[in-house]
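Project outcomes to date are best conveyed with an example. Our students and postdoctoral researchers have been running inverse folding experiments weekly, and each run begins with a structure described purely in tokens. The record below, which covers 369 residues, was selected by the lab manager from last quarter's runs and is presented without edits.
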């Protein structure tokens, strides 16, 4: 069990502590900067009012005074809010850095495009590691986000994660937790169905399990009854990935790194699952490369064959076909005679809505089994 000293999280964060641990975050801004921002904002709002009054032939009336007072109040309010927000942010960073120092850990915040293994870390664009704590025990906890699409069609995805080194390279395996699914999986990747495994007992009522084709027996070697029980008891609310020599747990809910309760909970979960997985996999060897591995003394950690290192991505065939049918239903009637077009439209659209309803219900039922 990872031993953590939480005392520093509850201790007050004084200005001296902020200067020590978060001075870099505040170094670019001071009182002069706030004054400059306030004046620039005030001028940007006030000048258009003045120009409008001049062009309208109005003098400096009571209404003009009211406008100036309004813009002044807004500018002052914005500056105060910005200063308060910066101070809160700096205190939060200082608290976390002090906590990391007390536990011989490394705290990272707002890192752009981090180089990390895992299915969420190579998705989309605008990838940001919002904050993370990496402990000497090999466990890292954090929050991460990325964006897909552009403009009005863009969407930002937020995940919390916990990852730990297993000390052994294993085949790429993913456990899609059914408890956190609603209308289908919330995984960022889609995996081909031939890689889905059925394990013993009721394990598949909690997880959909994916392993590379040809690695079914390897997955069974790793996911013993004890390992599966630990996963069900402690990890059924998390999507779980085994990639290279790491175990990663994902959730779409933010992890509060400054919360003792949240930290204790996730660390207990990671320790319980990782200890079972480490114990079972410590002797795992991929027989496909075993002979080559034995003849290569340069590598201290057994490797996995190329075909087992990553799952094959699937394609959302049903969604593609459904989209094609809708596209045809919209545009094909334009090329048909009016009577036929009306008949086709009257028949096709109810069928489309019915198929969509059945599809959504099917996904929902499957995800809740």
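After processing, the design step wrote out the following sequence:
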């Amino acid at each position: 069990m990872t031993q953590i000293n939480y005392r520093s999280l509850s201790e007050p964060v004084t200005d001296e502590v902020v200067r020590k641990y978060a001075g870099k975050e505040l170094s670019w801004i001071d009182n002069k900067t706030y004054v400059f921002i306030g004046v620039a904002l005030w001028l940007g709002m006030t000048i258009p009012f003045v120009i409008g009054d001049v062009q309208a032939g109005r003098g400096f009336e009571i209404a003009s005074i009211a406008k100036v007072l309004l813009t002044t109040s807004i500018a002052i309010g914005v500056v105060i809010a910005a200063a308060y927000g910066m101070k809160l942010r700096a205190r939060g960073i200082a608290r976390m850095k002090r906590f990391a120092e007390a536990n011989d850990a490394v705290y990272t915040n707002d890192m752009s495009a981090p180089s990390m293994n895992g299915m969420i870390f190579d998705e989309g664009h605008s990838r940001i590691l919002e904050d993370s704590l990496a402990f000497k025990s090999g466990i890292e906890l954090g929050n991460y986000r990325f964006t897909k699409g552009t403009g009005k069609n863009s969407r930002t995805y937020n995940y919390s994660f916990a990852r730990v080194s297993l000390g052994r390279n294993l085949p790429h395996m993913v456990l899609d937790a059914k408890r956190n699914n609603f209308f289908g999986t919330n995984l960022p990747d889609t995996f081909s169905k031939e890689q889905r495994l059925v394990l013993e007992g009721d394990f598949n009522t909690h997880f959909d399990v994916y392993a590379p084709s040809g690695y079914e027996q390897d997955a069974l070697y790793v996911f013993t009854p004890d390992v599966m029980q630990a996963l069900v008891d402690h990890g059924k609310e998390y999507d779980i990935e085994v990639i290279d020599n790491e175990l990663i747990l994902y959730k779409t809910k933010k992890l509060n790194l400054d919360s003792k309760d949240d930290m204790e909970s996730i660390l207990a979960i990671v320790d319980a699952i990782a200890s079972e997985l480490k114990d079972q996999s410590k002797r795992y060897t991929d027989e496909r490369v075993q002979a080559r591995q034995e003849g290569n003394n340069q590598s201290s950690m057994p490797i996995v064959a190329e075909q087992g290192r990553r799952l094959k991505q699937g394609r959302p065939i049903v969604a593609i076909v459904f989209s094609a049918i809708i596209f045809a239903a919209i545009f094909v009637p334009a090329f048909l005679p009016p009577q036929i077009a009306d008949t086709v439209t009257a028949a096709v659209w109810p069928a489309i809505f019915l198929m969509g309803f059945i599809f959504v219900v099917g996904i929902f039922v499957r995800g809740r089994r």
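Strands lie at 106-112, 125-134, 139-148, 155-177, 196-197, 207-210, 239-251. The mean pLDDT is 84. The training component of this project remains on track.
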